[in-house]
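Hi both,

Apologies for the delay on this - the queue was longer than expected. I finally got the pyridoxal-5'-phosphate-bound model through. Below you'll find the protein sequence and the ligand SMILES exactly as submitted, and right after that the structure tokens for the full complex including the ligand.
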Amino acid sequence: MKPLQSDSTVQNNQVAPSSLSRHLQFLGSPAKLHIEHADLQSLATQFGTPLYVYSGAEIRDAFQSYAQACKGLAEVTICYAVKANSNIHILKLLADEGAGFDIVSAGELARIIAAGASPAKAVFAGVGKTVEEITYALNQGVGCFNVESEQEMHRIAEVAEKLGKPAKVSLRVNPDVDAKTHPYISTGLKENKFGISMQLAPRVYAFANAHPFLQVHGIDCHIGSQLTDASPYFDALDRVLALLDQLATQGIHIHHLDLGGGIGIRYRDETPPKPADVLPKLIEKIRHWAAQSGRAMPSLSFEPGRSIVGNAGVLLTQVEFLKQNEDKNFAIVDAAMNDLMRPAMYEAFHGVTPLIIEQDKPSAVYDVVGPVCESGDWLARNRELAVAPGDVLAILSAGAYGQTMASNYNSRGRAAEILIDKGQVRLIRKRETIEDQLRCEQNL
Ligand SMILES: Cc1ncc(COP(=O)(O)O)c(C=O)c1O
Ligand SMILES: N[C@@H](CCCC[NH3+])C(=O)O
């Protein structure tokens, strides 16, 4: 295959070494990619591709980086955002580490229950909670609803009254700050659908405070995802604290702050802040505010998703064909946009590397594309890769919003998932079969 002229858009070599994490390393000669001590090529041979593989140690380390950043500073619960990766074995691992959970649907609540976690440690966000979802959550004893509209507050009150079960509520406020991230994953601007405006919040709190079946628990604010700059967190916190002062003058006292998730990860060359860079400073600001206004320090929670699991996972995919059209080379692989939606949806960058680095193997510049019938079905563009048909590639930083955003488009089954943890290789989700896909449409 003729190598293309390299230009500045070409990603030289297969992988930005910085995207390889502590538990994802090339070992041996020839260099083979490993997660902890498991050889990924052997896993691809044993379990087939496409295959998601996660490092339990990486997930634990990432979770502990949050827990340690807050240790001794305040009463803090880290509520892992289930939408990032909702495999029940990963949820169990995190529950065992002490995580609470941020959920957005009855399905996510059912998953944490299946994982053996306590619903009381779950906060339920989302702009469109149905009566059925609210009923289920109250019956299961969900910790708190993060309420996103006045209408939703009324609905929760009605359901709670009907069931005779008081509901704990926090308002998710929209602070109208720019999280400086991709517009599709910014959530804290007034043009976004999320949260209640600062202007409306006092009225909704007053309603909740007066209702016999609502218990005002706290305030919640999540401004967006893949944040690489910490300053929007501080802007949002300033606005939240100002609102709390205003509410206090109405006799509404808030004792819990949920500051959301959103800390980014390195996909290519980003330098996102670490929890230890951000959380202690946020906590210090809250402590200072509480001391100045003569209040007790509130309890806190954070809702990280991507930064817990993103760099703990890779997607393994086999090269089926190398193809050349005009002046473009394609590496056609067996994973596609239905397995990893992020490139098609956000033009997101993911590092790519062959699992085995063979010296002297000729390289060329490829677009790595899947078999789905869409021109947008690409996983990586303009990458210099030394590959041949049959080789297996790792798509890096695929642990968050990978499998959870997967679909059956083109009637493709979802990939299998493997967790490497404490020296063991565990299949944590079977590959979806054609029969699995047909089940909901047959024998009706
Ligand atoms: C309400 C809420 N909390 C937490 C998260 C987790 O965000 P991230 O994965 O960026 O940490 C999200 C997703 O952006 C969210 O919508
Ligand atoms: N799906 C997004 C993140 C969305 C965050 C949810 N509010 C991504 O893949 O980056």
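Main takeaway for now: Confidence is low (pLDDT under 50) at residues 1-10.

I'll put the files on the shared drive as well.

H.
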